[in-house]
Amino acid sequence: MLNIADAESRTADLIAAARKAGADAADALYAGSGSTQVSIRLGALEDVERSEGEEIGLRVFVGSRSASVSSSDLSAEALSALVERAVAMAREAPEDQWAGLAPEDRLLRGDAPGVDGDDGADPSPAELRERALAAEDAARAVSGVTNSEGAGATASRSVIALATSTGFARGYATTGYGCSASVIAGEGGAMQRDYAYHSSRHFADLEDATAIGIRAGDRAVKRLNPGKLSSGALPVVYDPRVSSGLLGHLIGAITGAAIARKTSFLLDALETEVFAKGITVRDDPLRPRGLRSKPFDGEGLPTAARDIIADGVLTGWLMDSASARQLGLQPTGHATRGVGGPPGTSATNLYLSAGTLSPGELIADIKLGVYVTELIGQGVNGVTGDYSRGASGFVIRDGQIAEPVAEITVAGNLRDMFRQLVPASDLEFRRAIDAPTIRIEGMMVAGA
């Protein structure tokens, strides 16, 4: 894996070669990574994996025609062949009036903002093993846990560099760490499994392994002996483990590509109230140590924090350059990409701001409802907003979380769900997309 300076140089050299070979414009992306993963099961070392890889991707333009190629062979001979192949392919590609590099005047210039994403740590396999072992030991020690699917700990480092023929050449590095445990409670046909995990950019920020294990064990035991629930319209409360998924559906509906294709249930919602007043959904790509923090996007545009939903109102679309041109707008710094193919669009560190009520206060007046801790299936229609997911969790009775329930379905329409959404005060930044506990009134719940 190259260091940042060498990665920047390699991508810039590839751009120069592409221009020399006849490309009118080009960009190149380098992605290198190395990771170590240790797996434990039933107190014994199950696996130690070390993976390293690097790829470079080249996108070239000949007029309004473009082609993308990539290679994991970074030798001079391979890259020379890569350039020739890319230019030849572009000359035969169909024309696309919207394709092209990001506007030159919008590229990141000057010093790149720091996001503190690389701690320089390099924990040994032995350290990772001890962390995984501690997580599994803690989970197995929970009364009622009968078996283990294992525990693991990981450490990784990545280097990203992007160069364009408009003069951009920047790179950055990130580290990543994780710890998880998954265990089984009960016996025979009554067994239930659950898990817990945590991820961080800095090793020092990784949650204590014992706490992760205890949480996994407690969750599995609480799921034992699930009951049934009658069908009907009920309040549904989403645990933070699953509430963030609602924000994922929001983002999918407001990308420039979805709007340009007219395949979004929010097509007519720009600058209107999509959520209740007081609701804020913010994307913050510059959060220090954020899991998706980055100083520039996949096209070299600077990133910046933005309220996607402000006081309940949808403020704008998320666009790369191609979708922005198609919509007659400007790109928003949300382009994302791999080494192969053109950029797409995505949020970074996305979160729903906390409300004022504690989770207990949020459910206190619910006579009968559902507290969802797991969602199953992909029953969401991005065109209509229709939502239907398999779920499990707990019954809410008289304002208290009661017995577990499984094999239910929760359904509604996302436009109605967004308007009814009420967040609790328990927001924590633990994932790339974060949300507190969420309550939604009047969803259809179908029991087993």
From TrEMBL:
CC annotations in GO: cytosol
Gene3D superfamilies xref list: PmbA/TldD superfamily
Region Disordered, annotated ranges: 96-125
GO molecular function: metallopeptidase activity
Annotated GO biological process: proteolysis
Domain Metalloprotease TldD/E central: 120-224
Segments passing through the bilayer: none
Organism in which the protein naturally occurs: Sphingomonas montanisoli
Family: Belongs to the peptidase U62 family.
Residues covered by the Metalloprotease TldD/E C-terminal domain: 231-447
Protein name: TldD/PmbA family protein
InterPro entries associated with the record: Metalloprtase-TldD/E_C (IPR045569), Metalloprtase-TldD/E_cen_dom (IPR045570), Metalloprtase-TldD/E_N (IPR002510), PmbA (IPR047657), TldD/PmbA_N (IPR035068), TldD/PmbA_sf (IPR036059)
Signal peptide range: none
Residue span(s) of domain Metalloprotease TldD/E N-terminal: 26-90
SUPFAM superfamilies referenced in this protein's UniProt entry, alphabetically: Putative modulator of DNA gyrase, PmbA/TldD (SSF111283)
